[in-house]
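Researcher: Please generate the 3D structure of the following complex. Treat every line as part of one assembly.
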Amino acid sequence: MYKKNNFPHQQGLYYPELEKDSCGVGFICDIQGRSSYSILKKGLNILERLTHRGAVGADSKTGDGAGILIQMPHEFLAKVTAQEKIELPDEGLYGSGIIFFPKKSFQIKKCKDSIFKIAKRNKFKVLGYRTVPVKETAIGKSARETQPQIEQIFVAPLGRIKNKLDLERRLYILRKEIENKITALKSKEESNFYICSLSCKIFIYKGLLMPYQVGKFYLDLKDKAMKTALVLVHSRYSTNTFPSWALAQPFRMLAHNGEINTLKGNVNWMKAREGSLSSKILNSRLKKVFPIITPQGSDSSSLDNAFELLHLSDRSLAHAIAMLIPLAWQKNNELGKKIKDFYKYHSALMESWDGPAAIAFTDGKKVGALLDRNGLRPARYIITKDNLVIMASEMGVLDAESKNIKYSGRLEPGKIFLIDTEKKTIIDDEIIKKELAKAQPYSKWLKDNVLSLNKLPKAKANKDKIDLKTQMLAFGYSREDLNKIILPMLEEGKEPIGSMGNDAPHAVLSKRSQLVFNYFKQLFAQVTNPPIDPIREEIVTSLSCFIGPEKNILSQEPEHVKRLYLKQPLLTNEQVSKIINLNQSGFRAKTLSLCFEISKKTNMLKRINSLCNEAEIAVKKGYGFIILSDRGINNRKAAVSSLLALGAVHHHLVKKLLRTKTALILETGEARDVHHFAMLFAHGADAINPYIAFEVIKYLIKNDEVKITFEQAIKNYIKAVNQGLLKILSKMGISTLQSYKGAQICEALGLSKEVIDKCFPQTISRIEGASFDTLTKEALMRHQEAYGQSRDIEKLLPAGGVYQWKKDGEFHLWNPHSIALLQDATRKNDYEIYKKFSEAINNQSNNPTTLRSLFDFKKTKAIAISEVESEKEILKRFVTGAMSFGSISKEAHEYIAIALNRIKGKSNTGEGGEDPLRFIPLENGDSKRSAIKQVASGRFGVNTNYLINADEIQIKIAQGAKPGEGGQLPGHKVSEAIAKIRFTTPGVTLISPPPHHDIYSIEDLAQLIFDLKNVNPKARISVKLVSEIGVGTVAAGVAKGHADMILISGADGGTGASPLSSIKHAGLPWELGLSETHQTLVLNGLRSRVRLQTDGQMRTARDVAIAAMLGAEEYGFCTAALIILGCVMLRHCHLNNCALGVATQDEVLRKRFSGKPEYLVNYFKFIARDLREIMSQLGFRTLDEMIGRTDLLKTNKNINFWKAKELDFSKIFYKPEINKSQDIRCSIKQDHNINQVLDKKLIKLSEAALKGGAIVRDELKINNTNRATGAMLSGKVCSLFGEDGLIDDSINFKFKGVAGQSFAAWLAKGITLELEGMANDYVGKGISGGKVIIYPDKDSTFEASKNIIIGNTTFYGAISGEAYISGVAGERYCVRNSGLISVVEGVGDHGCEYMTGGISLIIGKTGRNFAAGMSGGIAYVLDEDKDFRKRCNLEMVELESLNSMDKETIHNLLHKHYKYTKSKKAESIIDNYDSYLKKFIKVMPLEYKRILETYKLDKKLNVAESK
Amino acid sequence: MKAKKGFLKVKREKASYRLASERVKDYKEVALLRSDGDTIRQASRCMDCGTPFCNWSCPLGNYIPEWNDEILKKNWRKAFELLNATNNLPEITGRICPALCEYSCVLGLNDDAVTIRENELAIIEHAFKKGWIKPEKPKKRTNKKIAVVGSGPAGLACATQLNKAGHAVTIFERDKKAGGILRYGIPDFKLEKRILDRRLDILKKECIIIKTSINVGVDIKSADLIKRFDAVCLTGGSRIPRDINIEGRDLKGICFAMDFLTQSNRAVTGEKYTYSDDLWAKDKNVIIIGGGDTGADCMGVAHRQGAKNVIQLEIMSKPPECRSHKYPWPYYPLLLKTTTSHEEGGERYFSIMTKKFIGKYGFVNKLGCVKLDFKEDAKGCSVMSEIKGSEFEIDADLVIIAAGFLHPEHEGLVHDFKVKLDKRGNVTTDNNFMTSKKKVFAAGDLRRGQSLIVWAISEGRKAAFCIDKYLMQKSNLPYI
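Model: Done. Output below.
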């Protein structure tokens, strides 16, 4: 049953193509190019030290894959071929590589026969094969079971070859042809056939191995004749446990740590480009390499495919990689014009492959590395005095003697680092870029050729008369669209914000005619890569694109930029007219009408088909711009949905290899909401003219609904859409529209296969649904509404009722009726009324809303209710969702905690800390302590004491209502009380970033789980994910990262504030996510290790029963709890204006709060009672028996709603076949590997201090596998002494060496850690009062202030304490610092981002985007080169000169810094204090300053009064 | 969306009325129209709820938060359009609707509800003042003819909607003037008849034919109507009053509220009628049996006619003045309602049962009553019992029975049409408002029994939609 890569075939909700991986990557290289066995040995060492970045499968000895790439070991090969009687040509004149063959000899023969023939055809002679000797016992069981036949091939070219590169090209073509031919066999042979490499320069050993096994398994690697000057290594962490040999890295030219988010688009565009490719060098042979991207490869292997082609078709390594992963050039004001133009030119050639990436690449002679535009992966390197370069995801992977280190550095975002072993030199990024920019006159080419809208001849906007009212009806507008969507965009230039969740029917269940956009859900990044912040990190984003016919990417000519350059993709009526009327310099535009005659129901599909043909003909005729227009509808003609038409045409043109020869532009009346635009771009649109939206704007202005000019209104509207688009791309971690285009970052919910195959191939749609018939019917319903009345009855636009409940609007499950019943039932403690409520929710036969409303239980043998487990047992499984004190009032927050403690369930504190007073039980036995403490991206209030007072620590990766987005608590909501528990200043805005800055990939999450477990070993660690396609795969990775519980949140869940389009359109319901997760975990054999929980509009016992049967052991309630406490769904949470006192901090409004804990207790008891009734009916004695029993669910066929009939839930109900011994619910505990940590020793050593009073001091050695050092000790200190910890410097440890990740995390007060050496990422995260001192090894000779000494994301979420770092920190220093006082000698990009308090003194250079989103605290920066201003983000801060107090502060800090670290830099500043003082700049947040001043004023007034 | 914090700054302003001492001297409207400025302030209290319970509880589904928002923006025209879209008689509901919406206003949970009814009135009166309400004739006529029988709120709403849809509508009214209970049941001090005439005038100009003094079923036979029209809609109301059949009921001086009010209304508007002293309160001891709105209206009229003394008797116990847990929000609560008439004088007694009418010379002059006690049984139902020894008598020269209505009159119209009735004696229809007889529809109190004016309008509108759909296969009329 296993297919390619040994993944299970698609089954149920499991899709093999969603598998993800992430990894550790590194290389070592001798700059002089001296090859030796010792380099190889060192490479293997590095690989081993990266073990913790990889993962172990279900069987503990099988890793996810590891491998090394080395130079062709000719000496060794000559030796071994002699034994095999293979006549090996001279070095460089043959090709060789390892091939994975299928196991059976007849299969091997078949493959070898093919190879022989193809080689002959390509003028190669197969010299022979050699069985690669391996030690099978060195690897794990499942690796052994799937181990291929591993052989090495030798081929020699026939005839003359010009040079090595020429031979390499011929080998490339040979390999591709073999791959394609054997793949085409489509039999068992192909499924296990894989060529690791076939080269005359490099050689690869890899497999399904643990890093330490590589050297042991491949016996060749023990041979001293095995020499190389460079080794590239890779250790893989995949989200699954399915054994795959071929997916191990390195690939042929690169190894990748990260994830390509835009893969679908990139692959499709590459496919489409095959039609226009030609290469002088590869000439006619080029066709043999098609498809360029090997199907079913991983994202990394696809990138490798593209890189290989670009390089072998005559681009240098640096050139090729710069094209694929360009730096963020668009908004970079530090780049030279020439370099910018180089990038701009190449952006006209192809889109970037976007996503977090640390890439190591090589051609065997040059080796290099590059980081993505946002620096989302770590990459550190050292250069030794004996000319070695060691680059890896972290430091300390190779024990280099400190005095041997010449330079310690890090790769910076978008920068390339290259070593040329032939030229024996390191080539700096600056020089590489200069060289690249110089190669061609790019600037001139751009200047001469690029078209811009301004340069196009003037054209009159379409003046066709539009009967607006009718057209609004035809395009499905409602009053809500006008008032709640468009109007706020005009007024604010921003997307509208709303609150609470989505309780209206999915598009496929709605009785109202739905636009096709509504059938799509936005996807988002979670765990395997980070979403980005489109506001604070705007510098990496861009909406600008070249559109129009693209040229051959394998060449470069001036004509390549003869394309239209758009700064943003929304076109005004005038602008689109300019394009429609294009007829100049070879550009012609063709308008295709989306209108069809309504006379026949089949006409819509017919029109779609003919549109494809018309577009194809137009492109072939040379039309470089195709405008798909729905103008011109009338009483006889309706328009095909813009999205259906676009999707169909786009994919048709891709298939015909014509897509890159034209631009697809929409002129549509449909699109108005940000989501609409996003879905059009996601499916390939190049630009959009929303002409009806513009008419509506005119109408609103005319009607005095908004008092601005039309021009301003359009500007605001476009701005709002643009910002919204950036938000949607960035929630997937994509930075540029160009890469998002056509990447299909969405999932369809409720579209049939027929529609998907025709219009949206590759977009996943899992429950079938609307067919073309249905979509046509919906289109005609709208048309009828508009044109169907012959009598002209004056009528308003429909109410809408999607965002607010309306009597004549869309159905909502939370409606006046159900809300009133729930409140009445719980207040009166009346089970009968509860039953009425649950009937109102459960029986949705008239208004199907949720997927589960269409489920039904199968008939089974009932048991007596007395046999069912007690209510008490059931109640323990109930939790409430994460609602922060901040989003809801103190009263509501505490009552929820009291109620849940009474029933022994768990309440969740939400993001934002908890008052320690609540940790103490009340006199009456109640407790306000939240059992679950959340750790969210803002890390507000997350100090050591908070963590140790948790039964469960929940890492919130995403939130149902706005997955992939950050949050913001506006200053006016930050009261004294909130500021206190969040460790911030009242009145200062608090921003939660979209990602956790210490989780950019799955191995990072594993690290955070490890950190938290160290702080509080007793708490279970849970990870909150949101349902979307692929969440199961992510969950499998999370389970492998040792989470104890995984929460799958449905996208319908509520929020205190979120863009309306996110509430509606991002993420999927829990039914899908939960079932997918359960199935995937079961398939992976991981289900028994973790508990599953689900939430997202859980309301009744039936909901709970279904959740249990789909796989959840625990159940979360949120909105229901608020309603019970008084909420009546005003949806005003974001306005701080809750009239019920539930979701507000306003003192006056809070007095109106009327909830009681009893009400909640009543509710949960009702649910438990009701659930027991269901259980007895279904014959379940315990909930445990119910888990995963999808076999007892079926579709309710009694619901006859026309659209619902097309749905198919079989994938949700699928039960994977597994062997009986495997549990399908949690039955074993995770092994957290915290028993051997260094802290165990530290705690022992600290005994005297922990017992009281004594001061402890000790020295120890440390290395990079000692992670989270200090965390467990800190937990211990806080559990003994509370938040205040110990007296400063009570416990002192001095370490020597390279510390592993998370050094000094959550370091408690009273502990001082001193490190002589270096540290990796996450130093001092969450530090809560401790002191950290780090300086280079005393033996080292490099200049600390110019070398990287600590890694990325250090002091993230720091609460308080001190830090003195002699040396430079990586990216994101002090992000979200609340109160740490620190000194450092230089920082990377995004320093002090989102900082809210504390002081950062930086006596060296900073990276770009300094102080973005910084709302509090102060940074002092030594600006020696007078260029700091350029790199500072001035949105929220201003730069000031020092006052006397500042001078004193700096002086004190410098003295301390010198005292602790003996910093030379500090010394020299102190020595020349006066002259240096002038060079300090004070970075002061505006808001913070204003508030400090009011404070001062208040104080003065108080003083005056008291006098 | 911006925060609407008006409710924190502005208090609910009570409706203002003319001084009681002044207003009892005439029949002019007692309520004072609020200024636009005050209305804007009051509208600012609306919170624009995500789940507007007002919109839910209003049978018409008035777009209350939306028009409140437009008032706030001083966009009266828009407010009017929104109001006009769901309500055919806002100037009337704005005056006499019991305002279910206000009882379910979210603000009412812990503050005073928004003055929704008065805001409605302000919008429509603003619109009249600006002349925005003009007869609007349909652009296209369908050549379908429809008869609406009865010109009360259900009939008027139904006719208005059908006319909009292009049908030729004729309203038949057996009284001299159109309006039904609006004209003859509601006293002028609550609804001056010029308000009604203003609306009727517009309807007439919109080409709705109103034929008065024709008693369908008597003057015109049903068969004839069914033949002449493509559809008929019966909206005759629920006019059979609940009687009190006790000793002495046949004495003179005992009348039904509707008869008493009708004579008064005719007198006030100067309509020709035959005066009956038995229906006049001047210098009499007036006893009103029935504690509801109609009883209160009778009280107001009795004051104005110069009654010596007015007493209103209610059989049920005195309802609470604030909402009890029995009637939780957002439902319409049973509350003690003090109307303007109560403020003008007279007395109210609760838990009183009339046992007999005592007369002299064939005229009533006393009531024999007993006090009642109410207890709840195990199920929470109220059980009443007479309190022994609490019997007493009250002087009475005029007794007005205002104990509600049972069902529509069966004589004449209903019998002639031979439509099926339900157990309570109301006309039954299918879900599409069609009676047992094809082409014949029914709406309003005649169909659902005695109810509120908003329900009557709502029924009329829905019936219109169904009739339109029946005639044209589909309807573009709104249906809430």
